[in-house]
């Protein structure tokens, strides 16, 4: 590998640290042959439920050169979102930690763009696109290939140093860079995530039946929640963190330093009875910049109604 590629690779990792990213790894922008077989099988098994968009852009999901013309490298980055304190679930419904505050798509994209501006000042112009869970990119596959972590039995990317409470992002670019090596799998014989899932969504090691996942039911599903989920939701009104909360590696998670990820005060103070009376106006006020807006007011109301709190909680 030439010295320019090494210099640029070091610079990119240095900038990633400066801009607050937890990890940064690099892989060659090649076709993901092994992932192609897994994705095809997953789709054939209908594990994507009503997420029909997963059937679209099959080739683009597997080959970054179809997303970014002339791309040579995929830069994978992780950004911590583990909160300093979790929102109390006492007399309250539950919401995934990633949705406590501002929408991560916007926050991290802004940081990525600023980072690329600095890189181009020092490297010169180069072709690129930034991605934060917003295009047909197999983020975990690229992060795994770049050595950031391994894919756990719950299909989340896990690291020994930081667990799994972080977002993934990518810069796909036309720079020749030095690729990193994959890390090893450290789940061993642990089955905590599999055993803890109340809906049996983890059908086997690293294979998730998305149609049985609480996160799918409360976010992705647009129709009525199937009876299969009755009495299995464990008070989750948006998303679910169960398989991450029980993962032993998450005992190493450290609080994030991003002020825009500070929990919304309204989420701290609401109780079940108040959520039951949620209005469109209040929903828009509380979740204006939140990932929760993805489910829309009627979707969140549907989730809350499905949980059917007992009368003595009002």
UniProtKB/TrEMBL annotation:
Compartmental location: Cytoplasm
Keyword set, alphabetical order: 4Fe-4S, Cobalamin, Cobalt, Cytoplasm, Iron, Iron-sulfur, Metal-binding, Oxidoreductase, Queuosine biosynthesis, tRNA processing
Family matches, as SUPFAM superfamilies: 4Fe-4S ferredoxins
Protein's pathway: tRNA modification; tRNA-queuosine biosynthesis
GO annotation (BP), single: tRNA queuosine(34) biosynthetic process
Chain positions recorded as [4Fe-4S] cluster 1 binding sites: 187, 190, 193, 247
GO terms under cellular component: cytoplasm
Annotated positions binding [4Fe-4S] cluster 2: 197, 213, 240, 243
Binding-site residues for cob(II)alamin, renumbered to this chain: 61, 133, 154, 157, 168, 215, 240-241
Pfam family name, one: QueG_DUF1730
Domain 4Fe-4S ferredoxin-type, chain residue ranges per copy: 177-207
Known cofactor(s): cob(II)alamin; [4Fe-4S] cluster
Protein name as catalogued: Epoxyqueuosine reductase
Protein's organism: Chryseobacterium defluvii
Gene (name only): queG
């Amino acid at each position: 590998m030439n010295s320019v590629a090494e210099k640029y690779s070091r610079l990119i990792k240095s900038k990633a640290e400066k801009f607050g990213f937890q990890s940064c790894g690099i892989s060659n922008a090649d076709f993901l042959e092994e992932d192609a077989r897994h994705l095809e099988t997953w789709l054939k098994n209908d594990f994507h439920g009503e997420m029909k968009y997963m059937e679209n852009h099959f080739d683009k999901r597997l080959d970054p050169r179809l997303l970014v013309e002339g791309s040579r490298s995929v830069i994978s980055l992780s950004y911590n979102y583990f909160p300093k304190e979790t929102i109390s679930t006492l007399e309250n419904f539950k919401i995934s930690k990633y949705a406590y505050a501002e929408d991560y798509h916007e926050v991290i994209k802004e940081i990525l763009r600023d980072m690329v501006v600095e890189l181009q000042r020092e490297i010169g112009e180069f072709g690129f696109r930034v991605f934060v869970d917003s295009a047909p990119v197999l983020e975990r596959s690229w992060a795994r290939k770049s050595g950031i972590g391994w894919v756990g039995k719950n299909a989340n990317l896990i690291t020994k140093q930081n667990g799994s409470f972080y977002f993934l992002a990518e810069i796909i670019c036309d720079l020749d860079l030095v690729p990193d090596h994959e890390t090893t799998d450290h789940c061993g014989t642990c089955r905590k995530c599999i055993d803890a899932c109340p809906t049996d969504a983890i059908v086997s090691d690293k294979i998730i039946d998305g149609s049985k996942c609480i996160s799918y039911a409360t976010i992705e599903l647009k129709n009525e929640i199937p009876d299969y989920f009755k009495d299995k939701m464990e008070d989750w009104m948006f998303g679910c963190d169960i398989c991450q909360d029980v993962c032993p590696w998450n005992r190493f998670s450290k609080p994030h330093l991003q002020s825009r990820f500070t929990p919304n005060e309204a989420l701290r103070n609401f109780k079940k009875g108040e959520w039951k009376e949620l209005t469109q106006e209040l929903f828009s006020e509380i979740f204006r910049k939140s990932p929760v807006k993805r489910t829309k007011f009627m979707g969140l109301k549907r989730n809350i109604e499905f949980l059917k709190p007992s009368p003595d909680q009002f």
